[in-house]
Fold this protein.
Amino acid sequence: MNWLGPEEWQAVALSLKVAIWATLLNLPFALLVSLALARWSFPGKQLLNAIVHLPLFLPPVVTGYLLLISFGRRAPVGAWLEQTFGLVLAFRWTGAVLAAAIMGFPLMVRAIRLAIEAVDPKLEQAAATLGASRFWVFATVTLPLILPGLIAGAVLGFAKAMGEFGATITFVANIPGQTQTLPSAVYSFLQVPGGEDAALRLVAISVALAMAALIASEVLARRASRRINGT
């Protein structure tokens, strides 16, 4: 990528870093929430479902502002995190990870939940009647069957994290080399005379990364399906 300038390369590298961390941090929580929504009955289930999907319906800027007043350095949660763990989120790349994770979480949950709901409960019940614990049933029966959905959810979350703009720029600003991701870099280049070429290069990289992620997800999902079907 020698044809990229230093600022452009920093934006690409930071976007990948943010998207990977957001996806990895989201996966276990998305799997747990998907299981709860698909299989469990408990008070407040519909409320949890609404909260999970709320970022899809709120303007991203509103989500970013809510993050700022909740996790800013002077906000209750943000101040506690800094004092207890030394973790600062506002106007840091770590905050970009949080914003991207929250925006991508509903997409991951929906994909994984649909995969779980497609599993025949009788298969799980059959394993349970043989004396397997709930964890063992999930690990040996449910998880292999939902693997394609898990992969699809991870790819959706990664793609959303790569393209997230509104919540990120509101929560962590647009600081070159620190919080400037691909979308915010494209926005910045389009605001200055002569920046169209740099913006076009970043757009081309965004498209290439998105296509690579989609192709990889298709390949992995097909392999997982073949393994499940034993072919």
